[in-house]
Amino acid sequence: MFLLLVVVMATVRVPHAPRIEGAPVASGRGSWKQLLGNRAMVQLCVLGFVLFFACYGQFESGLSAYGVEAAGISTSALGTALAANTLVIVIAQFAVLRFVERRRRSRVIAVVGLIWAVAWAVAGYAGLGHGSQEMATAAFVSTYALFGLGEAMLSPTVAPLVADLAPEGMAGQYNSAFALVKQLALAVGPAVGGPLGASLHAPYIVAFLVFSLGISVLAVRLGRQLTDVQDQPWVAKSRVVARGGAPVSADV
C-alpha cells in the first residue's frame, strides 16, 4: 500500500496556486528565529510535549503493558478500557465544549492535568492495590475513561491556541512546529513508557502522576504569557471575517 501511495503521489500534477492581490508581503516568510522568540509559543510546545508524552504516548504502550503485567488485566478487558475511552470522548465532547468556551484556556489545560493525575492514581490502585480482580479491572477501565474526559477538554482548547499565537502569515509554521513536537512526544512516549510499564510498576505510576501534575504547573505558567484575547478569546467583542475580499463584521 505504501508503494502504491508512492506511485500515486509521483503521478499527481498540482496546478500552480493563483496570485492573491493584496496579500501581506511577509506572508509565509516568517523565520524560525521569530517563532523561537515567542515565549508563549515555546512554553506551549514544552507543555504540548508533556501532554502527548504522558497521555497519548502511553495508551497503547506503557499503560497497556502495566495493565497486563501489574493489574492482571485480560486482553478483552483492555479492549473494554479502550472502548470506554472512545465512548467518553464521544459523549463528553458536547457538554465539554459548552464548559470550556467561556473559561481561560490555560485553566482548562491545568484542570486536564489534575484529571489525568487522578487517572494515574486510579491506575496505581488497579495494579498496586490489594483489591479483587473485578475492582482492579473496574479501576483500569476508569483510568481510560478519565483520560478520555481530558482529551475531550483539550480538543477545542490547544489547537485554537496555537493558531491564535501565530502572527499573520505564520499560522502554517506555528502549526507545523507544534505538530513536530507532538510527533516527537508520541515517538518517545512508548519508548520510555513501554519498558517502565512492563517491569517497574510503582516508578512508572509515580513518574507519570508527577508528569500530569507538571502539566497543571506548566499551564498556569503559560497563562501568564498569554494576552487576554489569547487566553479568553470571547473577550473580543467583534470578529472580522473575509467575504468576497471585503472585511465584514461577523455580527452583520
Order of strands across the biggest sheet?
Answer: 1-2
List the quaternary state of the chains: single chain
The helix/strand class is mainly alpha
Number of domains: 1
The biggest beta sheet reads: 2 strands, antiparallel
CATH superfamily: MFS general substrate transporter like domains
CATH class: Mainly Alpha
Q: What's the average pLDDT?
A: 83
CATH architecture level-2 label: Up-down Bundle
Radius of gyration: 21 Å
- Shape from CA axes? globular
Count of DSSP H/I helices: 11
**Total count of strands:** 2
Low-confidence stretches: 238-252
Relative strand content: under 5%
Helix content: over 70%
Q: Which series of helices and strands comes N to C?
A: HHHHHHHHHHHEE
**CATH topology category name:** Growth Hormone, Chain: A
- Give the CA-CA distance, first to last residue: 49 Å
